[in-house]
Amino acid sequence: MAPPLLVLIVWSLAAVLLVSGALKLGRSAETLRSLAELRVPQLLRRRWFAEVVPFAELGVGLALLLAPTPAFTVAALSASALFAVFFGLTLGVVARGESVVCACFGVRSTRPIDSLAVVRNGLLLAGAVAATVGAREGAVPGMLAFGLVDWTVFFAAVALLLAIAVTVLLVRRSRATSAPRSLSSTASAAAPSAATESWPVPDLEVTDATGRAVELATVARDRPVLLLLLSAECTPCGVVADHVPEWRDQLGDAVEIAVLTSETPEAFRRRYPQLDARMLFGYRSLIAATGIAGVPSALLLGTDRRVAAGPAQGLDDVIGLTEAVVSVLPSRDSRTVSSSHRE
């Protein structure tokens, strides 16, 4: 392997660890919850350990960049150990068929762990092993010895890596749920039409705040409902919950926001004491029926007992779906004027 490519591998490993560590700083509660969801041994599910993890990642990342010959080997071995643990944990989640959103990159971790996460961690582990075997010093000292050919190879490899990263990002964004194109002229009495074909609301029941069973298809009886699937143990779910007041103001009376969770009412209220939205309980049956990978997720329910848009899965897609619904609604001012004219 050419030295410039090995240096690029070390840079990539360091960047992942530095970003991961930085995004975990000050978020020990989320990291602690993630440790439990990933089934880390009980002995390590401690606040102090959750607080140490980001500093360990930052330290190893910096050492990969700057360490001289003797210390670099220790740093590379440490990186190999970290990525081996990450690989094992994500592989375990996928093998068990569980839906877990890890706090790998703090609040930016929005998607459930899947086979792509396992592949990513496997590649990082392979890169760390290659760095341990082939490199003798940090990436920065190694670059100081580059000649013209080395720099050419290095920047060509960087360009290729960036192109791959952008392609992957665009492909993932292309999976985002298409937004509804328009709302019916009868406003809240009609279901939104979707850019993709709608599908029937699953035939199942959820529970309302009083404990009464409610048919899911009747939740949007009078107007479309943006149904948010949230958990009390999910960091991105908290971001979605923080957006609810803003979204409710933007959607007005045209679309109602409802939250569906499988937490107990008490646990959910403790986690989101300020959340003011219609509450429904029992999302696990919906996830099982639809194949939704995890939370946060969202569905746009129409009054015709059909899902008009969704499911949107992950923080970015949920925000994107909601913004798309808002974009096809009349402006707040025009809705107010129209309402006053009808009166």
From TrEMBL:
Superkingdom of the organism of origin: Bacteria
Domain Methylamine utilisation protein MauE, first and last residues per copy: 5-132
A Pfam family of this chain: MauE
One GO CC annotation: membrane
Keywords, alphabetical: Membrane, Transmembrane, Transmembrane helix
Membrane topology term: Multi-pass membrane protein
GO process terms (BP): methylamine metabolic process
InterPro entries listed in its UniProt record: Methylamine_util_MauE (IPR009908), Thioredoxin-like_sf (IPR036249)
Transmembrane segments: 6-27, 48-66, 72-95, 116-136, 148-171
Compartment list: Membrane
The protein's name in its UniProt record: Methylamine utilisation protein MauE domain-containing protein
Organism per entry: Herbiconiux ginsengi
Taxon lineage: Bacteria, Bacillati, Actinomycetota, Actinomycetes, Micrococcales
